């Protein structure tokens, strides 16, 4: 009886109203799309487009850049250095747009989950959250990364790229094939798990201790969100560089 009274009291005064896995669906023919992911993704894309236009609206060539242009140039230099370190001096330039898009989209998405009060915006079903808080988004980004390093390998080595699966010995063929499956899995679940856990922890603390405790956790969340974006972009560059490096090794021989 006391247990039932406790449960009824808990239902009357819930500590947190958190739902995981409930989505706002768009019905398009026979397909169901997660509408809340598209809404927040379009918000992030709009922010990036506005930032790009603001940073290139009045480019200062002769004088030192100021204001937002200086920030955008710093971001470009950071991404170029990241791509150069992972892919190599000779091959990195064509991959700067891809690595940069991954990093900026994930970075802004992660920070939107920490800074934008998505939960306060009501939708017919589910709730809004950062795009990277949905496993579909992170899996899509990971699969794009896999396609990118396959393209890099085949564009440099042709069908000879497949030789990597039997090097240094054909015995490793199953392990080398398995590795290509684990790369996108690890990329997607690492990003999704960290962002979901961070938002859940902050949400629970806001309900339990709404004034003091959540603030340092939110600051820590901003830091870890940036680190997650950096890790994803760095690993993407490393995988592309690894695919290209084999070609360099063949040329060397």
UniProtKB/TrEMBL annotation:
Membrane topology: Multi-pass membrane protein
InterPro entries recorded: ATP_syn_F0_a_bact/chloroplast (IPR045082), ATP_synth_F0_asu (IPR000568), ATP_synth_F0_asu_AS (IPR023011), F0_ATP_A_sf (IPR035908)
Keyword Transport: yes
Superkingdom, natural source: Bacteria
Gene3D superfamilies xrefs: ATP synthase, F0 complex, subunit A
Transmembrane segments: 33-54, 95-115, 135-154, 191-213, 219-240
Alphabetically ordered keywords of this record: ATP synthesis, CF(0), Hydrogen ion transport, Ion transport, Membrane, Thylakoid, Transmembrane, Transmembrane helix, Transport
Localization of this protein: Cell membrane; Cellular thylakoid membrane; Membrane
HAMAP family tied to this protein: ATP_synth_a_bact (MF_01393)
Family to which the UniProt record says this protein belongs: Belongs to the ATPase A chain family.
Function: Key component of the proton channel; it plays a direct role in the translocation of protons across the membrane.
Protein name: ATP synthase subunit a
Organism, scientific name: Spirulina subsalsa FACHB-351
Taxonomic path: Bacteria, Bacillati, Cyanobacteriota, Cyanophyceae, Spirulinales
């Amino acid at each position: 009886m006391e247990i039932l009274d406790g449960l009824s009291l808990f239902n009357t005064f819930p500590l947190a109203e958190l739902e995981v896995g409930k989505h706002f669906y768009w019905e398009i023919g026979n397909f169901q799309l997660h509408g809340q992911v598209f809404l927040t993704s379009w918000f992030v894309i709009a922010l990036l487009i506005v930032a790009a236009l603001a940073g290139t609206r009045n480019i200062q060539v002769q004088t030192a850049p100021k204001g937002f242009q200086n920030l955008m140039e710093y971001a470009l230099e950071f991404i170029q250095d990241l791509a150069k370190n992972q892919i190599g001096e000779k091959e990195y330039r064509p991959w700067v747009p891809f690595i940069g898009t991954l990093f900026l989209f994930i970075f802004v998405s992660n920070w939107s989950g920490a800074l934008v009060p998505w939960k306060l915006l009501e939708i017919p079903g589910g709730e809004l959250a950062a795009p990277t808080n949905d496993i579909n988004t992170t899996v899509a980004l990971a699969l794009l990364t896999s396609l990118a390093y396959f393209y890099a390998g085949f564009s440099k080595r042709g069908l000879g790229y497949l030789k990597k699966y039997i090097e240094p010995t054909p015995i490793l063929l199953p392990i080398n094939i398995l590795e290509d499956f684990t790369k996108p899995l690890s990329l997607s679940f690492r990003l999704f798990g960290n962002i979901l856990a961070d938002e859940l922890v902050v949400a629970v603390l806001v309900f339990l201790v709404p004034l003091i405790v959540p603030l340092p956790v939110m600051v820590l969340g901003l830091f870890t969100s940036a680190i997650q974006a950096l890790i994803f972009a760095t690993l993407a560059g490393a995988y592309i560089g690894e695919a290209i490096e084999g070609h360099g090794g063949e040329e060397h021989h």
